Amino acid sequence: MAAILSVSGSPSATSRTGRLLRHVDARLVSGGHQVSTLDVRDLPAEALLRADFHHPAIADAAERFRQADGIVIGTPVYKAAYSGLLKALLDLLPQYALAGKTVLPLATGGSTAHVLALDYALRPVLTSMGAAHIVPGWFTLDKDITVDGDRTVIAAASAQALDRTAEVFSAALTTGVGALAATA
Ligand SMILES: Cc1cc2nc3c(=O)[nH]c(=O)nc-3n(C[C@H](O)[C@H](O)[C@H](O)COP(=O)(O)O)c2cc1C
Prior knowledge:
184 residues, alpha/beta, six-stranded parallel β-sheet, two-stranded antiparallel ribbon, 43% helix, binds flavin mononucleotide
């Protein structure tokens, strides 16, 4: 069993990215992992905007990254990149905050024209932060994530792809590829 931190970089109170993450979190819990969540929008805005590295909430977030074996990072695509909110947090974490971690990048967006944002914008930052293993991510169209009462409904093809993505992440955590890379 791995300890996973599931991080949402959406500023939205009705976030589709958040709903997507909860869907993936549930799959990971079913796979025997322990998942805790971090919504960057819940961190103090002033600390994020003023780069207050020493704010207790920022220090606590950094510690939660440190303690996790695996990190799921979800972001909406904004202006063909990941969200500024997510960037604000990443900028406050130590340079190698992802050292030894297995990371799963996820994105939601309005256009498949920006599927590549995961790989040309987010992945290089995760690499530069020392991630030991970044498994293939997944981009989900916002229209494929709908709400039925309290329930999140994800279009069948997207749900299937997400399940597969979560399985690959889970297997990477279980085989400990990231941990091996960290000690190499
Ligand atoms: C300011 C802003 C910029 C956006 N820019 C893009 C974009 O460049 N490409 C894209 O595919 N979708 C874009 N979108 C659509 C969002 O990525 C999409 O609706 C996403 O699912 C929103 O996630 P959220 O509900 O978690 O915030 C943008 C949305 C907003 C509000």
